Amino acid sequence: MPRRTTPDPISAKIGARIRLLRAERVMNLSELAKESGLNKGHLSSIEQGLVRINFGTLVQIAQALGVQPMILVTFPDEDPMARLVERWRKLPPDIRSRELSEVREMLKQMRA
Fold first, then answer.
1. Are both 87 and 98 inside the same structural domain?
2. Are 56 and 79 within one domain?
């Protein structure tokens, strides 16, 4: 199937999200390609929204970026829950762990 010449709207959003996460890690496309096992040109097309990404590829990219796959399809500017997930993602690991313990305790208390 030939590559698109104009970006698909949802593919472009996912591609922009991947580009943002890659930039946060100060990775270039070559490094992401090496880490994910994907072709640099294909990754470029994904980031531009010119190809629709399948789930397997999404998982490979997420693993290479060190995030859960849902992070690639979460758009914080569009949804309050997504903003919460984004804030959580940006917490340092020790604080995130402490927060998670507190949430678990709150859930236990709610069930009782």
1. yes
2. no
Buried b (16+ CB within 10 A) or exposed e, 82-110: beebeeeeeeeeeeeeeeeeeeeeeeeee
pLDDT tens-digit profile of 12-59?
Answer: 999 999 999 999 999 999 999 999 999 999 999 999 999 999 999 999
CATH assignment at residue 37: 1.10.260.40
How many angstroms separate the Cα of 37 from the Cα of each of 7, 28, 69, 71? 24, 14, 16, 19
Which residue in this structure is represented by tokens 């949430």?
103
Domain count, the chain: 2
Cα gap 59→37, rounded to integer Å = 11
Tokens of residue 90, six digits = 């940006």
Our CA angle for 16, 18, 19, nearest 5°, is 65
State both tokens at 6: 């104009």
**Residues 6+ away with beta carbon under 8 Å from 57:** 38, 46
